[in-house]
Amino acid sequence: MKTGKMFWVILLSSFLVLSILLVFSHQYSTPTTTEPVKEPQAVTETGKEGESPDKPPQPQPEPEPEPQPATPPQEPPQILWGVDTASPLDQAFLQCVVDNYGKPSVFGRYLETKEGVSAGLTPEEVELLHQQGIKIIPIYNHFTNATTYEGGASEAQAAIAYAQQIGIPEGKAIFADIEPTYPVDEAFIRGWVETLSGSPYKPGIYGVFTNESALTAAYQAAIAVNQNVQSQTIIWSSNPDPGVTPQANAPEFQPGSPENVPVSIWQYGIDGETCNIDTNLFQSNILDFLW
Fold first, then answer.
1. SS percent in the chain: helix, strand, coil, step 5
2. Nearest to 139 by CA among 155, 158, 124, 159
3. In angstroms, rounded to a whole number, what is the distance separating the alpha carbons of residues 138 and 192?
4. Contact at 8 Å (CB) between 286 and 265?
């Protein structure tokens, strides 16, 4: 073989061997596995990956309401004992009542004097009763006709003036004395109640409330016109009349009025033989409205 040809053979062989060595060297230095490329994740407005930005927010369940304690049943009001009189009151008269009947919790007295009918309440009587812890029921009786709205409003205004003159504070009740012989209609009831309700005082009505009485019919008719008449008025009824008794022998509180005439004071006895008094039972929940 010629020298030049031999040279090329050797050179080509060297290149071939070098190429084979390079291939083997790359295979042993490069890992045979590759990590998969992660796809980019969509990010919502809240910054959480994997949630679609168009997906509406899931409603959160409302918390269950906490159980409320049951409303305790209201206890019925206490029944207390008291008296009323048309006579002037002094220490001797009060002592007569205490000695023969018992100490009253309330004492009904009339506003101003009505000639031949009743003596009016005086500041001295007020002081005497309050010193003994006895509340006063203010009674207004300066009329004999209980008809027309104007009549009821006018009598209420006169009662308010008397009450303010003697110093009865706001929030106390004044009772219209509607006797069984008086003509009465629903308009008078409304005039009395609405005028007093718009004043510093609360309306009350005294009378005989039976199923057949004209006063009951007028009162129910007034409620039909103005439902507030019932809720705003304190009722004092003189029915039935089992007779005057000492406090210890007082009857159960069972006034005989119709069911829709809620009675708070029951005058169960009239004209006591010892001391000129009438005897009453009343519910304790009206104490704040008495003076």
1. 35, 20, 45
2. 159
3. 15
4. yes
